Amino acid sequence: MATLYGRAADNYVLWEYQKQFASDSNISFNDLDHALFQQVTIEHIFAQTPAITFPAAGFNDGDEYAASNNMVGNLTLLEHREPNLQQQADNKPPTDKARDVYPRSRIPDVQSLSQSINAHGFSKQCIDARTAAFQTFALKRWA
Questions:
Q1: What local confidence, expressed as pLDDT, does residue 52 receive?
Q2: Whether 45 contacts 75, CB under 8 Å
Q3: Whole-angstrom Cα distance, residue 38 to residue 41?
Q4: DSSP assignment, residue 3?
């Protein structure tokens, strides 16, 4: 299982992923923007506290939800200062975040997530697919 949360290097690892994601997607991203790097924190796409009734979104129960919560496919970076987008996204369902918060982010993956969630929703299967994509990136980047 590819969990990524609670370690000091998590922001750096996800920042490196943003660089590659932007490059692969032909999205402009200044990876040397230290001020932006200092403004980001880990964002859980599905909130750490479930806001859904199970079964839903590909999860059979709360245990399955909890097991997926810190998987890298459920994580991205989001600004937490000026503006505090992370606070605005806190504990909202992915569809609300994609509509109201994510479009204002300067992080490439979050901008793409907003469009994808608005078009197709977000589910456990999305977490699994994003986790697999991140694992492929990590093997190329650090192997």
A1: 85
A2: yes
A3: 8
A4: B
